[in-house]
Amino acid sequence: MVQKLDLLIKNGLVFDGSGELPIKKDIAVINGQIAPENSFTESGAKTVIDAAGQWVMPGLVDVHTHYDLELEITPGLPESVRHGTTTVVMSNCSLGLAFGAQRVDGDDPIVSCFARVENIPKHVLKKVADKVTWNKSDSYLEHLESLNLGPNVVPMIPHSMLRIEVMGLKESVSREPTKKELSKMKALLTKGMDEGYAGFSTDALPFHFLANDPNRDKQIPTQFAPLSEIKTLTSIVRDYDRVWQATPPKDSPAKVVRTFLLTSGLLHKKPLKTTVVAALDIAANGSIVKLATTLARVLNSKLLNGRFYMQALAAPFKIWSDGPFNPLSEEIDELRELIETDLEDREERRAILDDPAYQKRFRKMWMTGKQGFNLARLKRKFRREDYAFNRTLSDMYIDRCPIQSWENRSFQDVLDGLQAENALRTPEEIEIRDRYFKDVRDEVDFMIAAFKAFDTDLVWSTTSANRNPKLTRKLLMDPALLPGFNDSGAHLTNMAFYDCNLRALKLAQQGGHKDVSYMVKRLTHDVSDLFGVQAGSIDVGDPADITIVNPENLSTYDGEANVQRIYRKEFEHEQLVNRSDDVVTATIIGGSVAWQKDQFSKDLNHKKYGRVLKAQ
Fold this sequence. Notes:
By secondary structure, this protein is of the alpha/beta class. The chain folds into two domains: 60-316 and 466-600, Alpha-Beta Barrel (TIM Barrel), CATH 3.20.20; 321-463, no CATH class. Helices cover 34% and strands 18% of the residues. Helix 20 runs antiparallel to helix 21. The longest helix has 20 residues, at 512-531.
């Protein structure tokens, strides 16, 4: 029987997500699902998209997001939809909303946990926490289903929030759980797995701290879990064949190996699906990416029989900073002392910077490895430093500054100008120099003076990893790794990786259709298969989640040149975003067009496009 269509996509080159070479064919949609071939006629189709010369593929999946919060304000998630993303995995790094606001005895866990770890202003977080009405994991899934979702969402059970739910915030960052408390955690995690949560997330990066008093000097709750607790909880995840999302305890290679041996089917009778952040070619330490890829291969060997996937970023790891505020500052004690303060508290930061004892500590930190003949100098010379934070002034560029003539210049260029006779460019520069920079002798004095003079009005950027496009491409194409780590929905003014699925396709494009087909499979089918959710393919009967890409425009797209800092009224705050206009021809979710011809559908955020995807 010939049926009238809701949507017909004709003449497109179709990559079906299987990894096979593409074929030219039409795709039809009836009632939100892919219709059988030859069961339809173009005549009378409600919507027709001529995809001649375009790539048609399953909707792209973003495997690492922190959209738990933005969903409560703008459920359409427009900054991902415009780049062809139709499914997002959230509740990563042990943080999420599965157990509600968890406000008890004056504690505000959503604000305290997210503010510094994900670099989201407290007023945005409080705005979300005030909207929370649920307090159980099943009620949260019901709540998500009630939202006017743009992309499909894949939630996980977050470990920090699980600890808080059982132990309370204060106790969760003070000690190990009692047997009774661990038993309750197991019960809640089991309940979440029964409800269809796709996985369980933890975090071990040592620079993830709480943001509220009296716990600013303490890491988030998951950090206080002993390996025995992680092992106990992940055994439940293993039994359900769900995913453990984790970050490595980076300061201890032995602990990294011991922790991630939990993936091994040899040691634990059944492999544990594990995805870990992140395989980055860090500029200050080139050994880390080699260790990451080696670890993945060893764990996934036939002997150990693991299912371990490091996530690789499809872009230079460019970080923007508002004064001292950026996610990498947390790993250095002297910088962390500044960003422990509230974002609005300029006076407290200035008082810290005026303290001679602090200035002495800052100088020692900043100059470590830059002078003398010592181990630190050798480590810096051979790219084996302990920090990912970049302290090279010639690599640090000013994007925004009260002195506009400093913009688009490196810190080193500005410092050279301040120190050179007759090199100042404007009367404004001269006035600022005399007020703040008069006694600057070297780069340490300059950094302290810049933070004092401008605080968060100084916006600067540096690329800390993935500077070599060839190596980035090699990582993305590595079957032992997984394209991801976009951190969409977090680090509002520090990162702009919403377009990274497109950047991955562009890098694959260098190898022709064969490599593009492989990358489409990684970004769609492989991620969906790992998490056990219904997405990532466009077979007959599948939900019609489809991305259409213009390959010619993709080939000339420059993600680095298309980052913008905009004000989003929903957040009452600025955000770094990407603009890939003319690259994504259309984003189709559940059979409905959410983005086409560089415009959102008028009903995005007001109509439900996506679904809550539960593990099968």
